[in-house]
Write a structure and sequence with these properties.
The protein has helices spanning 8-23, 26-33, 41-49, 68-78, 83-102, 105-116, 232-245, 252-265, 277-305, 311-340, 351-361, 368-386, 401-407, and strands at 122-125, 141-145, 148-158, 166-172, 183-189, 194-198, 211-221, 225-226, 267-268, 271-272. With 411 residues, the chain is of the alpha+beta class.
Length: 411
């Protein structure tokens, strides 16, 4: 849908990304899903060499100085490889966001620049064994001793942990302070004191290097603190913008096109199944959902790019994109499998692999339920702060003031 609005430069960029995607061997996808390969190193290296990582970041650090439109265009193409590749591609944008916005020049030179070049790999460490959605309840601690912080604790479900050279770690540095004023973000380099353990038994999104991190008296240099000590709350919310805005772009559109081609060829009762309403109405619903996701994501991308509205307003919209897009892709992939019928439930088509992977998208980076909490909270604030705008429709009823007083009882 977005294609008719794309500029010539954007189409050229899309073609660059398509060529990268086409170059990825099929066997890599299969080996990752079989847990034979734990991290797509070559993919990130190749993307970095082609200057396709961190497109939004300044050219001086290795980006292209582009916008959210270009990043979303690129990610939709990357998504045809599956959720693992989309996730690794997005991680550069997510961790890179914290360094680009809050990092020092030295941190950008040491970590951001080589990451965008595909020479270093990053991961973010948020979730802990004792809590997922309760981010500010973190129990990982960092105690300052001279020029170092002594880091102790665990992080779980760290995507890319097995291949990462450094981790963006949130830790409590002021144990007695309020939760939102007690956490710092630090860059922790891989080393002997950082133990990485593979997470087995994932339903999907395998081969992504998902691991558990154990920190035992890890010495983190003070210069690796990103932003201010105990000031990571605002960094976290900034990080959640790319984290959530990018999380809904996977392979749903490619799978739907596959289902359309199948419905055009597969015959039942003497005619192609595309002729049956039970099939073609599903396709109509699916493409409507995906077009809505694309339009919504690009619109919110522009709002974020230009910092329009309040931070709460932008946070609400980003959460809406995450909620709507991840739910839509799950529903679309289920319908794709239904259109394929029994064969769609086997590995004869990639839909079952993508369906398994997409289930994770409604959980990570804040579950759908967490997005609902954010959305309703910010919307209540907006509506109640503005008061009544335009026509007061509460008065458009046939009752008298006396009758209204009898009917509208609030306490």
């Amino acid at each position: 849908m977005f294609e008719v609005l794309m500029t010539e430069k954007q189409m050229k960029l899309r073609e660059e990304v398509r060529q990268l995607v086409k170059s990825i061997p099929k066997q890599l996808l299969l080996d990752m899903d079989a847990d034979k390969i734990s991290f797509p190193t070559q993919f990130l290296t190749d993307a970095g060499r082609k200057n396709l990582l961190g497109l939004r970041f300044p050219k001086e650090w290795g980006g292209r100085g582009l916008t959210w439109d270009e990043e979303l265009i690129a990610l939709e193409e990357i998504g045809t490889l599956g959720i693992c590749f989309a996730c690794q591609y997005s991680l550069v944008s997510i961790v890179g966001e914290t360094l680009n916005v809050y990092g020092t020049e030295a941190q950008k030179e040491k970590f951001l620049k080589p990451t965008l070049a595909g020479e270093m790999f990053c991961a973010e460490a948020l979730t802990e064994p004792r809590g997922g959605s309760d981010f500010f309840g973190t129990t990982t601690t960092a105690r300052r001793e001279g020029d170092y912080y002594i880091l102790n604790g665990q992080k779980r479900f760290v995507v890319g942990a097995e291949g990462a050279d450094f981790f963006a770690v949130y830790a409590k540095t002021a144990p007695d302070a309020e939760p939102h004023k007690s956490i710092s973000l630090m860059i922790v380099e891989r080393g002997e004191a950082v133990t990485v353990k593979h997470v087995y038994g994932l339903m999907g999104a395998r081969g992504n290097g998902t691991g558990r991190l154990v920190f035992k008296d890890v010495r983190v240099p003070v210069e690796n603190i990103v932003g201010e000590e105990n000031g990571a709350t605002k960094i976290f919310w900034q990080m959640m913008i790319p984290e959530r805005l990018l999380s809904g772009i996977t392979s749903s559109r490619a799978c739907l096109a596959l289902a359309v081609r199948y419905a055009n060829r597969r015959k039942a009762f003497g005619q192609p199944i595309r002729n049956y309403q039970g099939i073609n109405f599903k396709i109509a619903d699916c493409i409507t959902k995906l077009d809505a996701v694309t339009a919504f994501a690009h619109t919110v991308g522009k709002i974020v790019q230009n910092k329009l509205g309040t931070s709460g307003y932008r946070r609400r919209l980003v959460s809406e994109v995450k909620k709507f897009s991840t739910r839509a892709q799950w529903e679309v992939l289920n319908d794709c499998m239904q259109i394929l019928g029994g064969i769609g439930y086997t590995n004869a088509f990639p839909v079952e692999r993508e369906l398994r992977g997409s289930r994770l998208a409604t959980i990570w980076t804040g579950t759908t339920e967490i997005q609902n909490m954010i959305i309703q909270h910010e919307y209540f604030k907006e509506v109640l702060a503005k008061g009544i705008e335009g026509r007061d429709i509460e008065a458009d009823v046939p009752l008298t003031d006396e009758e209204l007083a009898e009917e509208r009882i609030y306490e």
